[in-house]
Amino acid sequence: MYKEFYGLRANPFNVNPDPRYLFLTRHTEEALACLTYGIQSRKGFVLLTGEVGTGKTTLINKLLEWLRLQQVATAFIFNSRLNTTQFLDYMMADFGIPCDSKAKSQILLRLYNWLLDRYRAGETAVLIVDEAQNLSEEVLEEIRMLTNLETFTEKLLQIVLVGQPELEQKLKQPQLRQLRQRLTLRAKTHALTLEETKAYIQQRLRIAGSNGQQIFEPEAVTAIHRYANGIPRVINLLCEHCLVSAFVDQQKMIASTVVDGVARDFDLGDSTAAGAMTPPQPEAGQEKFDLVDALRSLASLADRLREKDDDKGLPQERKL
Predict the structure, then answer these.
(1) Which CA distances in Å does 127 have to 16, 31, 257, 275?
(2) What is the dihedral sign for C-alpha 295, 300, 303, 308?
(3) Domain 24-188 is of which CATH architecture?
(4) What pLDDT, in 10s, does the model give residues 302-320?
(5) pLDDT digits (tens, 9 = 90+) for 31-54
(6) Highest-confidence segment of 6-10, 92-96, 288-292
(7) Is 278 exposed, middle or buried (0-12, 13-18, 19+ CB in 10 A)?
(8) How far is CA 243 from CA 159, 249, 252, in A?
(9) 291 neighbors 268 (Cβ within 8 angstroms)
(10) CATH number of the domain at 192-312, please?
(11) How do 125-129 and 73-77 pair as beta strands?
């Protein structure tokens, strides 16, 4: 919609967890190093936690990209609303391990033999579970039991649990203490500082094809960081809609007033002025922003564009 206007080849602020856009802060580098070290050293269990929207899935996709380049067998479970049977079936299917029997004993035996074959060949296997805070206690216990698949010296299966801070709280429950004790390494993602936010926006624009021409005024970047509280996912959403809004008004430079308008559209208050750096919390079970509200915002922009076309005598079906 606005790529040609701003000299871009791609959408720089897509909310999909594209590993090409991974922004390496000190915390992100530490987390990625922790994950790769834990897997290479066969530590067994690694935990990655972070607030919603801080880039956990993007980091995991980068890890998966690296593992596949190393030809490491992986199973990635992104839907954690599974019972024990469904969890084991999904894992076996993603590893590509055939098993005709549905009996749990046969599934585990087949998995153990497959892992042993890989170990003897000097290879490993990695199971990654995203949104692990939603796992039931029964499934978490089953995952703990998978770490019993081992030799005298090393774990045969490397497991990465990824989740929100609620996962850490869940693991503190007394009935999960055995699992908690087996967590050998812990990594975290964090919100961005103001300086990191500036570099984050510049990097995404550069990867998307920008020639370095300034698009966001410094005051606009400061406002984006303030409204987003440094959360990358919210930064992406604000920047995306700022580009759309400024394009509609044919503005080459995005000012802080544009950011203020977009923030109002999404009910993001000025957290600094309010004395707190926390954006509005979503209701339980909802995403941070309502899709309906987002569509209404885009519809409003489309109406403004049609009005400008009518004023200029341009056809309404003008190609964006």
Answers:
(1) 22, 17, 46, 42
(2) negative
(3) 3-Layer(aba) Sandwich (3.40)
(4) 555 555 555 545 444 433 3
(5) 999 999 999 999 889 999 999 999
(6) 92-96
(7) exposed
(8) 40, 10, 9
(9) no
(10) 1.10.8.60
(11) parallel
